Amino acid sequence: MKRLLPPDAASGARRPSRHFEDTGETMRRKAGSRIIPGFGVSLGITMTFISMIVLIPMSFLALQTSSLGWSGFWSAALDPRVLAGYEVSFLCSLTAALINCLFGVILAWVLTRYKFPGRRIMDGLIELPFALPTAVAGIALTAICSDKGWIGGALAPLDIKLAYTRAGIVIALTFITLPFTVRTIQPVLERLDRVYEEAGLMLGASRERVFRKIIFPEITPAILTGFGLAFARGLGEYGSVVFIAGNMPFKTEIAPLLIMSKLEQFNYGEATAVALVMLLVSSVVMFFINCVQSRASSFIKE
Amino acid sequence: MYVELENINKYFKEFQAARDISFNIRQGILAALLGPSGSGKTTILRMIAGLEHPDSGDIFIDGTRVNEVEAGRRGIGFVFQNYALFRYMNVFDNIAFGLSVKKERPAAIKSRVSELLELIGMEGMEKRYPAQLSGGQKQREAFARALAPNPKLLLLDEPFAAIDAKVRRELRIWLRDMIRRLGITSIFVTHDQDEAIEVADEIIVANNGRIEQKGSPEDLYKSPATPFVASFIGESALLENYRVLKGFESETRGFSGAVRPEFVKIFTGEETIQYENSVEDAAVERIAFRGAFLEVVLNIKGMTFPTRYSLEKTPIAAGDRVRALVYRLYAFDGDRAFLLHNRNLDNSGAGNIYNI
């Protein structure tokens, strides 16, 4: 953005000021003049915390895998059954995240734009999937989706099966990841001044056009964040999925389940190999989402 | 009449924002809707725009009743208080928005936008985003965006409120000249009387959801119709009981009133006074230097009179006893205001009220 500043502003910033000639002292004081004092201390805490919580366990993962050697790693990571597991996990998480983007926007819109009786209760219900132990969610969803359940039973005569299919996995993941999209989009919509919509309407735009051209770009970064969170959570989700998935190899067996079963057989090396592949791919996906997101929100940054 | 409001009422739950409002504006006029916050001025503007709907009453634009016409189809350009520029669109796309909605040809859009960019002096900034513009540039962009689809009527909500004082004066002269040049009928809302007086051809004063008075800036200043207008426009001081003043004893309209600085003349005792019988004894309470003149606050019979005093005359100081002549004042009777002349002065000799 800096190159677009007027030339006088840019040159003004470059001109050395007498007050900043002794840069060491002044800059340090400037950095310290924030709300939380002590840049050094707070950065140290941040680094230590990230290392302990994220980096050390991750490096342990790589270390464990290295015990396999390259050939062992490839055979574990690229085993056809494992490949099928990746596919199930990625496709189902992707579908669930996309479904939640659509419904997350609608739910957030209804919760922020309308006042109706029961709105607060509905707002509270959004967080339920977080509060519930995932296994409980899995059992409940399986119960209603199986052939004898309310929904599964109603769909059975139409020859539509939900439980023990990929559709079931998607249902479980959609349930689990719903709060991510709603809760990221909701505050953005709440802050979004109605005046932008009014400006669009005054210029003769239809409601549909106002949403598409004015509101949607405003919430796009939030949708992407919500999508990223939901997708990442979906990849790792285990408890709620295993009950409804049926876990048929090559069909409805998710990658986390493969990791679990390898762990149960004390096959730590292979388990971490699969986990490492999952980690790498989801890191790439998250990085890509972050890039798109920062592009989308770059216009309003100074 | 180009814009007409007839008996408009508007409630926000219990609060009545507009009480039986009727006024009209001729074509080509630049009118100001002036009032303190909570006076209902913005609500009136938004009802004309179609962003709010009156509970009763009719709105006509160019002879057509527009109550049921959608905001976007009334042929109105609207400049919002904080401009409401679309943050994710650059200058070009912002200005072009109203044109692309109309499905104009890209070439026509391009030429109209560059015409407007030239008008607002922002050529070469098409690719910038609102975050990269100064307050004045944003305002001009919002102005161009509102004008792009060739509206018949331009409405501006506190167009200068978000701009720092230094640029504001410059920008309001620019905007006034631009609107005059284009000849577009315009209404702007403001709480700043200086702004209204400087920019508008006609001022509509709103207070408490009512229209107090409509007229040229000069009319409002010289002959305010209500106590509110007398005290809101220009400088004035309230008088609890004007009838104790010499020359006003025989008046019959109300007791309270207001006086402007130029209605009072100070005598230091050396000059010959033509109207000896109507001169009051006064105490100088405060003096402030204002450059070209002194601002003097007098106390006459327990009431304060702010007035002006020439630097060329015999110097006076706080605490001095002087004599003062009250030429005229506004008397308040209920919700009406009247201009009264001092009865002891003959009409020919009273002199110009604007003489200090």
Give the overall pLDDT of chain B as a whole number.
90
Major pleated sheet of chain A: none
**Unreliable residue runs of chain B:** 348-356
Count of extended strands of chain A: 0
Described by its quaternary structure, the protein is heterodimer
**Beta content of chain B:** 25-35%
Strand arrangement within the widest β-sheet of chain B reads 6-7-8-3-9-10
Distance between the termini of chain A: 7 Å
Using only C-alpha atoms, the radius of gyration of chain A works out to 25 Å
Relative helix content of chain A: over 70%
Indicate the overall shape of chain A. Answer: globular
CATH H-tier superfamily of chain A: MetI-like
The CATH architecture designation of chain A is: Orthogonal Bundle
Return the structural class of chain B. alpha+beta
Number of separate strands of chain B: 19
Number of self-contained structural domains of chain A: 1
Share in helix of chain B: 10-25%
Helical stretch tally of chain A:
15
Q: Tell me the strand percentage band of chain A.
A: under 5%
Radius of gyration of chain B: 25 Å
Any descriptors?
heterodimer, A: mainly alpha, MetI-like fold, 75% helix, globular, disordered N terminus, B: 356 residues, alpha+beta, six-stranded mixed beta sheet, 8 helices, 19 strands, 24% helix, disordered C terminus
Q: Can you describe what's shown?
A:
Chain A contains 15 helices and no strands. Chain A is mainly α. Chain A has a single domain (48-301), classed as MetI-like fold, CATH 1.10.3720.10. In chain A, helix 10 (166-191) packs across helix 12 (207-236). Chain A is globular, with a radius of gyration of 25 Å. Mean pLDDT of chain A is 84; it is low at 1-29. By secondary structure, chain B is of the alpha+beta class. In chain B, the strands form 4 sheets. Chain B has a 6-stranded mixed beta sheet, with helices on both faces. In chain B, helix 2 packs across helix 3, helix 2 runs parallel beside helix 4 (135-147) and helix 3 (106-119) crosses helix 4 (135-147). The longest helix of chain B is centred in the middle third of the chain and has 18 residues, at 165-182. The model of chain B is unreliable at 348-356 (pLDDT under 50). Chain A binds chain B through residues 1, 4-5, 193, 195-196, 198-206, 209, 213-214, 217-218, 299-302, and chain B through 49, 51, 70-73, 76-78, 80-82, 84-89, 97-98, 101-102, 127-132, 145-146, 148-149.
